[in-house]
């Protein structure tokens, strides 16, 4: 148990020799270190799952999870260890604000992959709908590519069919007139196969020939239209219909699911707020905790360092002034203190 506490004390970023001089602070900093450690663990799990959905390679996901977890752990450890208790709470809060903002951003990044895993069933169902929508959009784009040509052929085919209907009616009429001329029931009303019948028969045959040529045009247009349709079908068949299973698709599906369902939206917010609370917990613990012996020891150490620094600077300045005065005295040939005694 002591080893675990020692490990968490290291995770807290506190100076252990100084912390041992304040035993009452050990449990507080062990709790802070545990929070920092488990935040790094959550970050590693989150990053590992995120990379698994992208690469589907266990070793890549594990390696990146380890690196990401250590980075978040080190960053949280620095955030907590760099905060120092001040005399006024407002000053502490002002100094902690950038760290709180950074902790919130880290929490949001950590929570997203875990949200994807928690709502995986709903996301998979939404991905199927998104795939179908994507396939329909692809098919629509392919059809639109050939739409102008297809419409042109259809309009020409309609015009030919209308012309064929008119021509067929004209042929039938001319054939009826020629038949009536032949049997004497119409025209000159003389049963005759003479020049008049031949002329009317020629008109009927000409109308039949025109109708036959229109039929050939109709057949050619239908064949060309069928070719366009087969090309469209072949292009649609050749479309890449891969599964939508990447990180971006899952995030979009999660956004659709949360927008469509209020309970899922609330659950999504609560999960994010939970990670924000976990990530910002060490910062707020240091903010709300009273000033303790460890903080006094830190201030004493920093004050001693500052005084030692001033003393070293003063000594260095004095030595520098003495060297300058000595060099000036050597140039003028007078003793080093002579100029100063004259003014004194």
Could you characterize the architecture of this molecule?
19% of the residues are buried. The protein has helices at residues 2-11, 16-20, 26-55, 58-81, 89-118, 120-145, 147-183, 195-237, 247-260, 262-288, 293-332, 338-343. The radius of gyration is 46 Å and the shape is elongated. Residues 339-344 have low confidence and may be disordered. The chain is built from 12 helices and no strands. The protein is 85% helix and 0% strand. By secondary structure, the protein is mainly α.
Q: What's this model, at a glance?
A:
85% of the residues lie in helices and 0% in strands. With 344 residues, the protein is mainly α.
